[in-house]
Amino acid sequence: MNDSPSLTLVLLIGVLVAVGVVLLLERSLSRVLLGFIVMSNGVNLMILAMAGTMGGPPVLWFTEPQDMTDPLPQAMILTAIVITLGVTAFLLAMAYRSWQLEGNDEVQDDAEDLRIVQGEGRRTLRRRFVRERRRLKADIRRQRAELQATIAAADAQELAEQARIKAEIARAQAELARYEAEAEESGMDEQSQETMRRLSDRAETMTAQVQELRGRIRLGRRRLREHRRADRAAERELWRELRRRVRAQRRQAGQTMRAERERLARAEDSDLQGSD
């Protein structure tokens, strides 16, 4: 005896359940009702197919126990039919009431759900902006540390260079003073004058190098101050953008809530007029 259902019955069950699910996903209550009925019929057929082959009625003294049909699927199908009838009546009442209030049977968006979704959207936006702000602050701190390290290295290099140049200037001045003293004692010749000119030029060159290094340090510090101002301006702009978006979200939520309240007020007015 073959207990497996036929392929036609299996395909019919699949088609009924698929059509029912598609109709249940619609916004119209009429289509939802049709989808529920079609899907319930498909499920009932599936339960019936699971019962196996047909047998005698499950009544003692009329049928042998081994020849009886399983009574459990039949009881489940009867219960499902009763439940389907009750849900069908409930959906019909909802569709009729929606038609009275709105002129259609489409399921409207719930104002509380919209408020929750928009609140979650605002929280997500706020969390994203907080992450952006933290990332921006981390970048600012990193760039500031790099600039400070660069400035510290430049300062150290400047100090070392200044010390070296000062030592050379002092040595050149000492040599110049010695040559001047020797020139005063023995008379200045052309070689001594050339040496003094070279020493004077060298001292002036070293002084110019010191001034150039100081100018570079001042330029680096000026760039650091400009970078800090730009970072603070970018942070302020980020906060302004965050506030603008939050205000826009609040305005949109307020408009949605007002529209929903107006819709409910119109529905109540039409209900009162109909009852009068």
TrEMBL record:
Taxonomic path: Bacteria, Bacillati, Actinomycetota, Actinomycetes, Streptosporangiales
Compositional bias (Basic and acidic residues): 258-269
Originating species: Nocardiopsis flavescens
Region (Disordered): 248-276
Family: Belongs to the CPA3 antiporters (TC 2.A.63) subunit C family.
Transmembrane segments: 6-25, 32-55, 75-96
Claim: Transmembrane helix is one of the keywords in the record: yes
Main location: membrane
Coiled coil: 126-216
Keyword Cell membrane: yes
NCBIfam families: PRK07946.1
GO cellular component: plasma membrane
Compartmental location: Cell membrane
Keywords: Cell membrane, Coiled coil, Membrane, Transmembrane, Transmembrane helix
Protein name (record): Multicomponent Na+:H+ antiporter subunit C
Membrane topology: Multi-pass membrane protein
